[in-house]
């Protein structure tokens, strides 16, 4: 587990004061020899939601509440967080005793890889449901950071969001703005400009 903790700290570019928090964040409930990430996942879900809400509220003062909600939801959905876990290879560090999870994660990861290799630039459309464990890992790791920085939301934002989650935030924002523009022009489709 020590190697996994070090690897995830490297991904985050953050050294935990309390390494046990990260160990717990990387432990599935099927692994009964240690506390699981479930409590941290609960906290991480709320902390990421609030951190992102603060950001979009301050960064986009001209968006109406509906647009802000769309932007937040698009960035903290199970699908989006699962993609973050895949991008950073977090699943390989999770302790678990549920082999069936491996197959689900591999299937989703392969679908995302095929999408990345696709020349037409289409975004994954959800034909393979994102395994919840992937989003859970991101939320629990974020919560581990949040607790480790003494529940400082601004520090969580700097450690977790900027390097870890932001890789496709702009793409989601551009897509939502395009959807809003399309609706305003009464077109019957969503245009994606690359």
TrEMBL record:
Gene Ontology MF annotations: metal ion binding; ribonuclease III activity; RNA binding
Cell inner membrane keyword on record: no
InterPro entries named among the record's database cross-references: RNase_III_dom, RNase_III_sf
UniProt keyword annotations, A-Z: Endonuclease, Hydrolase, Magnesium, Membrane, Metal-binding, Nuclease, RNA-binding, Transmembrane, Transmembrane helix
Organism the protein comes from: Salix purpurea (Purple osier willow)
Domain RNase III, residue spans: 5-150
GO CC, alphabetical: cytoplasm; nucleus
Pfam families: Ribonuclease_3 (PF00636)
Listed name of the protein: RIBONUCLEASE 3-LIKE PROTEIN 2-RELATED
Cofactor(s), names only, from the UniProt record: Mn(2+); Mg(2+)
Superkingdom of this protein's organism: Eukaryota
GO biological process: siRNA processing
Chain segments annotated as transmembrane: 156-181
């Amino acid at each position: 587990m020590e190697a996994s903790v070090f690897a995830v700290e490297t991904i985050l570019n953050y050294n935990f004061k309390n390494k046990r928090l990260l160990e717990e964040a990387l432990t599935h409930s099927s692994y009964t020899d240690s506390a699981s990430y479930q409590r941290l996942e609960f906290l991480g879900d709320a902390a990421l939601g609030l951190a992102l809400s603060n950001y979009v509220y301050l960064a986009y003062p001209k968006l109406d509440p509906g647009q802000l909600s769309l932007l937040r939801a698009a960035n903290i959905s199970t699908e989006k967080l699962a993609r973050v876990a895949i991008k950073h290879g977090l699943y390989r560090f999770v302790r678990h005793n549920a082999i069936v999870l491996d197959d689900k994660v591999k299937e989703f990861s392969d679908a995302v890889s095929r999408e990345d290799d696709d020349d037409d630039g289409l975004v994954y459309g959800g034909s393979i449901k994102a395994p919840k464990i992937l989003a859970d890992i991101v939320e629990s790791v974020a919560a581990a950071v949040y607790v480790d920085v003494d529940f400082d939301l601004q520090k969580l934002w700097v450690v977790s969001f900027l390097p870890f989650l932001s890789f496709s935030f702009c793409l989601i924002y551009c897509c939502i703005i395009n959807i809003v523009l399309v609706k305003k022009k009464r077109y019957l489709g969503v245009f994606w400009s690359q």
